[in-house]
Here is the input.
Amino acid sequence: MASSQTNQKFLSRNVVTQYDFDPDATTATDIGWVDMRDAGRFVAGFFRTVGTSALTFKIIANSASDGSGTDVEVKVYSGEEPNAVGDYCFLECTAQELAALGTDLRYVSASCAVATGTDEGVVTYIRSDLRFSRADATADTIA
Here is the structure.
């Protein structure tokens, strides 16, 4: 019998989203711009699902919600290359780091580029240290 207890501790205190990364190109792709106004920390993870080529993985910040302003590089992944299916890596930054780079930097995105355009992955975002806890901070997305 499944538990009837409702546990929303992690999901009410963190905003978790996932993105399919299938660029069909080798140029850098901004994965998805998110607002850091009410979050103290941002984590981006890359999970390789297809391919073995080199990966360039960054966190970038911008003053515009759609990334149309000037991108500012926040973090660059420099660890061991995630070059096999099932490999994954993470980057993390804080709201204080963003403020130190520019007072108008409110939005962040992971940026990924692969050396072979047929490579693919999944990018996961976690925004944590939320200013306010809410039951719907993380919601399911079903197409």
About this structure: Residues 95-101 form the longest helix (7 residues). The mean pLDDT is 92.
